[in-house]
Amino acid sequence: MENSGEVAGGFVWKDHSRYAAVRPVATGWLVLWGRYEDQGRTNRLAGNRVYADLGGARRRLADSVLELTRRTEAVEEALVLFDRFPFPSHAPAVFPDPL
């Protein structure tokens, strides 16, 4: 398992052909997860969510890694990397009033 480092101010976890990423967006933190196919030429997105805070993104990361690997050891390792990652300061924008 490896963390490929900072990508556009965000965290990336990879394990063989599986990945999960957490990046800042205007409304919070975007979590993406999925698989690489064709030796990395194709990216198959399995899901994405936006969370208002890093705590929610951390929980989604754990659920995503478990979904992708079915291994609790992989979840523990991903969370250790996440907790050590130097995330940039980020405050989500205020949502507009509903229609």
Question: In short, what is this structure?
Answer:
With 99 residues, the protein is an alpha+beta fold. Helices cover 29% and strands 35% of the residues. It is globular and about 40 Å long.
Sequence of strands across the biggest β-sheet: 1-2-3-4-5
Count of DSSP helices?
2
How many E-type strands? 5
Q: Would you identify the regions where 5 or more consecutive residues have pLDDT less than 50? A: 1-7
Order of helices and strands: EEEEEHH
Q: Taking Cα atoms only, what radius of gyration do you get, to the nearest Å? A: 14 Å
Beta strand %: 35-45%
First-to-last CA distance: 44 Å
- Helix percent band: 25-40%
Overall 3D geometry? globular
Class computed from helices, strands and strand pairing: alpha+beta
Major sheet size, sense and barrel closure = 5 strands, antiparallel
Let me know the average pLDDT: 90
